[in-house]
Design a protein that fits this description.
The protein is α/β, with parallel strands linked by helices. It folds into two domains: 53 residues; 177 residues, 3-Layer(aba) Sandwich (Rossmann fold), CATH 3.40.50. The strands form two sheets. Strands 7-6-5-8-9-11-10 form a seven-stranded mixed β-sheet. A hairpin with a 3-residue loop joins strand 10 and strand 11. The structure holds S-adenosylmethionine. The site of S-adenosylmethionine has 21 residues, from helix 5 and helix 8.
């Protein structure tokens, strides 16, 4: 599905065009968008304080952005928390598929977590991550966000070259929608706009590089990533986490 950069106010034209150039996307003035034709497209809506992604140009479309303030308070993933048990005091983590950073935030919420490096290869997602981090101001959020650092690179390349050690490496490859349940807007947007992990060997490399464990998020019915059998899995109603202990 196509992603455009759009802007509402003429005074934002230059900034929006510059961003579009950086992202390699086409830029459109919101007033020029034909609603009928563009209801299936996505828009990166440029606003100087908080940009967002929207599906279609109609009023029913909702803003999708890195809402760390909301997720810090209103979101919990007990299954993912279970996957972090037994990690050392002050563990360091790398999220190899950061997306909107929601799972990275869950990892950062763990009291023993010292730092999380979020790696995301899509430029527009990296921009939203940066903005989400910059907009986090309240202490309840900052205590988690302050553990973050971010990189706009391919995680396979990064892991191949880095000299840093990570106790935990987390991978959330895109999995296709299964069954009747509708994906949340943000997950659907990632499905529509980002590519699946193509770098064969990311898991294998991660297992070699992590000092303690690799956690991979899968749909409960999905096959194992790269056909590698985990040491054990933590299973939920929809999602399964496969755990690989590093030797
Ligand atoms: C399913 S999403 C992850 C969602 C994320 N866990 C969250 O909480 O929002 C997968 C993301 O990984 C990114 N990605 C896929 N392969 C990558 C790679 N090799 N290096 C860096 N990012 C990658 C995609 O661009 C996409 O944003």
């Amino acid at each position: 599905m196509e992603l455009f950069v759009s802007y509402k106010l003429p005074k934002h034209e230059e900034a929006a065009f510059n961003l579009a150039k950086e992202f390699g996307l086409t830029c459109l003035f919101q007033g020029d968008i034909d609603k009928k034709e563009n209801n299936l497209s996505y828009f990166f809506v440029y606003k100087p304080d908080r940009s967002c992604i929207r599906r279609g140009s109609g009023n029913l479309s909702r803003d999708i952005y890195c809402n760390f303030s909301d997720w810090s308070v209103n979101f919990k993933d007990p299954l993912l928390s279970r996957c972090l048990k037994g990690l050392p005091e002050k563990f360091t983590a790398l999220d190899a598929t950061a997306g909107f950073g929601k799972d990275a935030l869950e990892i950062a919420k763990n009291k023993q977590c010292q730092s999380v490096l979020l790696v995301e290869r899509e430029k527009w997602l990296f921009y939203l991550l940066q903005e989400g981090i910059a907009n986090a101001e309240i202490p309840e959020v900052l205590k988690f966000i302050n553990k973050f650092s971010i990189k706009n690179v391919d995680s396979y390349e990064h892991l191949s070259n880095t000299k840093s050690n990570f106790d935990l490496i987390y991978i959330d490859p895109m999995f296709p929608g299964v069954g009747k349940s509708k994906a949340k807007r943000s997950i659907q947007a990632l499905r529509d706009l980002t590519k699946e992990i193509e770098t064969d060997g990311l898991l294998d490399l991660a297992i070699k590089k992590a000092t303690k464990r690799v956690v991979v998020k899968r749909h409960k019915n999905s096959t194992y990533l790269e056909d590698l059998k985990p040491n054990y899995s933590v299973k939920g109603k929809v999602v399964r986490y496969d755990i690989y202990n590093s030797s």
